[in-house]
Structures are given as structure tokens and as C-alpha cells.
Design goal:
heterodimer; A: 232 residues; B: 146 residues; alpha+beta; OB fold (Dihydrolipoamide Acetyltransferase, E2P); five-stranded mixed β-barrel; 3 helices; 27% helix
């Protein structure tokens, strides 16, 4: 697993993995979307609108997952002085921001027909909006410092401070009264979703993950090349 | 203790402190963070007339009345208390008796709540429509699911 912390090893593994991951993601997206649009049934309450879930939920999960990965690499970068951690932070932040934006937009399109409103300031929606703002700030900090070493540290510290928001996003629906419904799939209980709807959700989640990895590989490789002069 | 371990400890400690600070703030402001009150949380003697608040609960069964087209009367309940609501406007598709709803508006007097906005709230259960029919045909349909 050295390739997860070493740029040159990462480059080697990435070259092998990139094409299979990209192809897998395209295949999974095709199957997942066919399932989502044609093979999955209508919901008993929400009818066809429930299909928005197959985009909304995977992008929400990945928005959080991307941030968790960035937090872990920030700790690696700050505490263990692994420069690859800072490379990941710079490369991955826009990906997380886009996933958050997809989540917010699809959720908004889902909220209008079901709840009767595009947006409300309840705890879940607000905390996700804050997550998006944090991502945007990370991108801006990445663009703003002349000195690379100062910038990397500021970004990593900001990511760690912002990671306080993650449990708030996750548990907001349990801690407060919110318009957003509580989690459907949690580890502790049997999922309250029918298998015929669970299948497209899982396929779409893996499709999103593979697409995320493919874009991340491209961005990380670019970042490594752009730093080559002072890494070696 | 190595320098790396000290740095790791410092980072984790800082995170724990920041997290507990944020959670303390949120815990002490939970009444404002919550999006709505439930009917039983509203103290009848504390009602402030014409102050805009949100109330969430279920639409009580057999309480929905259409006064005229576009004007409705219903009760919001959480099985402990219920509140009489009047509303003029368009109801969301999901709105029906037994369904979760959040209403925004103000009390016009101690007993009647005039809603300006009605949001439907749905739960975390998803089920194909065909299974609902099967369950209803075999008589196993749980009324709780609406």
C-alpha cells in the first residue's frame, strides 16, 4: 500500500489502474442508469420522483467520503510530514465540491415536488451548504498563497478544522427536527428500502466511486508533475 | 515519544477540543437549530400570537376539511397533542391524512394556527408501489405506512 503515500509508486499503480477504472465506471453507469430509469419500480408514496435518489444519495455519500479522505491525508501531511498528503488535498478538493453541488442540486429538484419547496434552512440542508462553502474555501486557499509550504499547511489545517462539520452533516437528522428524513441505510438496522430499489442505488454508488477515482487519478498525476521540480 | 507522535497527538487533541466546543454551542442552541416544534412541545400558556414559527407532525386522521377551493382546515398531531390549522394555498402532492407535514405560520389566537406555508415530510422507507398492492390484497398492509 506504499503507493498511497509515495508519488512515484502512485504514478506506476495509477498507470495500470486508470483505464480499467474508467471502463468499469462507464459500464456501471450504463447498467445503473438502465436500472434507475427502467428496471426499478415506482415508490409507493413518491412515484417516479424516487429515481432522483439514485443520483442524490451516492453523490452525498461521496461528498462526505472525499472529505474524510482529505482529512486523513491532512493528518498524514501535518503529523508525519508526508508531502503526498498535500498533493491529494490540492487535487481532490474540487471533486468533493462538485459531488456536494450535485447533491444539493438534485436534492433541491427532489424537494420541490415532494416537500413543496426548493430549499429550507433545516439542519441537514444547512450543514451540507456549509460543507460546500468549506470545499470552495479550500479551493480558494489553494489558489491564493505564493509560498507553497505555507499554503499546504494552511489548507491542511483548514481541512481539519472543517472536518468538525462531518459528524454534524451525518447526525443532523437524528439530533434535531429536520424536514429531511433520517438515514435509510445504516449499519445498525435492517435497511428500510426494498431490494429492487437497493440494487440500482448500490450500482450507482460504485459507478460514482469509480468515476471519482478516475478523475482523482488524472488530477493527482497532474499535481505530481507540476511539483516535480521541488519534490525530487 | 517521537516527534511524529507528538504532532499527531496535538492534532487529534485540537480536533477533539474544537468538536466539543461546536457541539456545546449546538447543544445549547438546539431549540433554534431545530427546524420545527412538535405540537406537544408547544406550551399552550406560552403561545405568542402572530409570532412566526414552524410546527411539525402528522396530519390527524379524519381531521382534514376543505372549507372552499384553496382553503383548508386540518389538525397537526404528534399523538400527544394536536393543533388546529387553517391554510389557504396549494398543498404539496404528498400531503394527506396520516402523512408527516411541517407548517409555517403563526397562531391567530390560543387555539388556531394560520399556516402560510405547508411542507410535506416523507419518511425513510422506500417500497415499490406493486408491493403495496400485494400487501393490501393479502390484508397485510400496515396502516402505519399510510
Amino acid at each position: 500500500m506504499i503507493f498511497l503515500v509515495n508519488p512515484s509508486k502512485f504514478n506506476k499503480v495509477a498507470d495500470y489502474v486508470f483505464l480499467p477504472v474508467l471502463i468499469l465506471s462507464i459500464i456501471l453507469f450504463s447498467i445503473g442508469l438502465i436500472f434507475a430509469f427502467y428496471l426499478s419500480p415506482d415508490d409507493y408514496q413518491q412515484g417516479s420522483t424516487v429515481r432522483i435518489m439514485y443520483v442524490h444519495v451516492p453523490s452525498a455519500w461521496l461528498a462526505l467520503l472525499t472529505y474524510v479522505i482529505m482529512s486523513l491525508y491532512s493528518i498524514a501531511g501535518l503529523a508525519f510530514r508526508i508531502p503526498f498528503g498535500f498533493i491529494i488535498n490540492t487535487a481532490v478538493a474540487p471533486i468533493g465540491a462538485v459531488f456536494t453541488l450535485i447533491c444539493i442540486i438534485s436534492g433541491s429538484l427532489w424537494g420541490k415536488p415532494m416537500w413543496g419547496t426548493w430549499w429550507v434552512w433545516d439542519a441537514r440542508l444547512t450543514s451540507v451548504a456549509i460543507l460546500f462553502i468549506i470545499y470552495v474555501i479550500i479551493i480558494f486557499i489553494n489558489l491564493s498563497f505564493e509560498n507553497r509550504i505555507v499554503r499546504e499547511k494552511v489548507v491542511a489545517i483548514f481541512i481539519l478544522v472543517g472536518s468538525v462539520n462531518l459528524p454534524i452533516v451525518k447526525f443532523s437528522v437524528d439530533w434535531w427536527n429536520t424536514l429531511h428524513q433520517p438515514a435509510t441505510i445504516s449499519k445498525l438496522s435492517k435497511p428500510s428500502i426494498d431490494p429492487s430499489m437497493m440494487t440500482p442505488l448500490i450500482i450507482m454508488t460504485f459507478a460514482f466511486i469509480m468515476m471519482g477515482i478516475a478523475i482523482a487519478i488524472l488530477r493527482i498525476k497532474t499535481e505530481i508533475i507540476s511539483r516535480k521540480s521541488y519534490l525530487s | 515519544m517521537s516527534l511524529r507522535f507528538q504532532r499527531l497527538l496535538l492534532i487529534l487533541l485540537t480536533l477533539v477540543i474544537i468538536l466539543s466546543a461546536v457541539l456545546l454551542i449546538l447543544y445549547n442552541t438546539r431549540e433554534n437549530v431545530s427546524y420545527f416544534y412538535t405540537p406537544s412541545e408547544i406550551d399552550k400558556s406560552d403561545i405568542i400570537v402572530n409570532k412566526i414559527i414552524r410546527i411539525g407532525g402528522f396530519v390527524e386522521n379524519d381531521s382534514f376539511n376543505k372549507i372552499s377551493s384553496g382553503s383548508f382546515k386540518f389538525k397537526i398531531t404528534d399523538e400527544k397533542a394536536s393543533i388546529l390549522v387553517t391554510f389557504e394555498g396549494i398543498l404539496p402532492d404528498l400531503f394527506r391524512e396520516g402523512q408527516g407535514a411541517v407548517i409555517e405560520g403563526a397562531f391567530v389566537d390560543k387555539n388556531i394556527f394560520n399556516a402560510t406555508n405547508v411542507f410535506a415530510k416523507h419518511d425513510e422507507n422506500y417500497m415499490p408501489a406493486s408491493i403495496k398492492e400485494d400487501l393490501q390484497n393479502t390484508g397485510n398492509w400496515n396502516k402505519k405506512y399510510k
